[in-house]
Backbone:
């Protein structure tokens, strides 16, 4: 069986691995060191108790086998008595009683919630907010130039109340803009950002037209009078750029290379290992540890799914593209061309985890 045959069965492995994660990841994968230590100590204690008690109890039961026989006889008679039609009907009626069923489900739910609260650490979602500021300019027909009006949190289009009332709250510079009450700016820089998606979300298609090359928006009409540009202040874009440029091969995945938490991430990391990616040139980022990174990388690449592979700053694609390129041989050629593979004398090495997170300092 060659590599191509192995990849043909990879979907089955992904399906089985997803079922395995769904059933056991919440209970058998401990992210906290204290819980892992507690479980390890408990297993050691059980082993010690077995080693100390079993050698004593087994010889006693062997030498006094009548105890085992009496226990088996009692169990058989209890089963026979329980199967009597009168007792059996009462027992089944009690088992299928709605109140008993509800009470048992409630108890099981409390036990499960308690175990989950002890074993699974809830992700803390950072209270992040995006600030949008618009730079406004007005056309001066006499001078035939655009005259700056200032910076405002209102896009001041012809369909807004502020434009109709000619009341504009503005600042003369970006430095004068303060963060919302209770917030601080995570970085001092502002990012120039005009996208068609922003215009559609604010239902401005009929009143403005975007010049995506210059990052300006103009009033629709024969003689536009107001132009806007939009700035956003956010840290995630710079953090992702730094992460992508930190290593030649960068994979944004669910989980880590040692413990992928989705079948597609597992298939991608296995494929990179089979291709012989140099561990010293590889970095993996777990998007499940950072909800902001998980959403930001999708917007950054305009790709809706995880995992995502970057090579020397270039977006390659997701799991399907990586598997397709590997099957056709394009991936090996591309990685070799980019200098991301293990040198010939070191081909015995495997891809390892790069436990790194985006640098946000």
Residues:
């Amino acid at each position: 069986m060659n590599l191509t045959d192995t990849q043909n069965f990879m979907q089955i492995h992904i399906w089985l691995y997803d079922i395995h994660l769904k059933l056991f990841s919440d209970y058998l994968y401990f992210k906290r060191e204290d819980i892992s230590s507690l479980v390890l100590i408990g297993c050691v204690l059980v082993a010690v108790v077995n080693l100390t008690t079993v050698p004593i109890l087994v010889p006693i039961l062997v030498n006094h086998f009548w105890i085992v026989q009496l226990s088996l006889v009692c169990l058989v008679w209890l089963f026979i008595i329980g199967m009597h039609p009168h007792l059996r009907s009462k027992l089944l009626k009690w088992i299928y009683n709605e109140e008993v069923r509800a009470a048992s489900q409630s108890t099981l739910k409390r036990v499960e919630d308690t175990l989950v609260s002890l074993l699974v650490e809830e992700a803390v979602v950072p209270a992040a907010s995006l600030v949008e500021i618009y730079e406004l300019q007005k056309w001066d027909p006499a001078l035939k130039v655009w005259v700056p009006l200032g910076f405002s949190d209102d896009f001041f289009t012809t369909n807004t109340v502020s434009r109709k009332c000619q009341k504009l709250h503005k600042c003369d510079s970006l430095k004068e803009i303060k963060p919302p009450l209770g917030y601080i700016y995570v970085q001092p820089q502002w990012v120039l950002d005009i996208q068609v998606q922003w215009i559609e979300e604010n239902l401005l298609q009929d009143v403005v037209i975007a010049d995506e090359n210059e990052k300006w928006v103009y009033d629709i009409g024969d003689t536009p009078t107001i132009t806007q540009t939009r700035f956003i202040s956010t840290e995630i874009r710079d953090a992702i750029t730094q992460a992508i440029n930190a290593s030649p091969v960068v994979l944004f995945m669910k989980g880590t290379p040692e413990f992928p938490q989705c079948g597609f991430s597992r298939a991608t990391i296995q494929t990179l290992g089979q291709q012989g990616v140099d561990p010293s040139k590889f970095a993996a980022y777990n998007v499940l540890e950072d909800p902001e990174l998980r959403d930001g990388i999708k917007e950054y690449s305009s790709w809706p799914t995880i995992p995502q592979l970057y090579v020397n700053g270039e977006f390659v694609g997701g799991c399907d593209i990586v598997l397709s390129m590997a099957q056709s041989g394009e991936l090996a050629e591309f990685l070799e061309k980019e200098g991301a593979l293990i040198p010939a004398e070191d081909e015995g090495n495997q891809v390892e985890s790069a436990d790194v997170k985006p640098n946000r300092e």
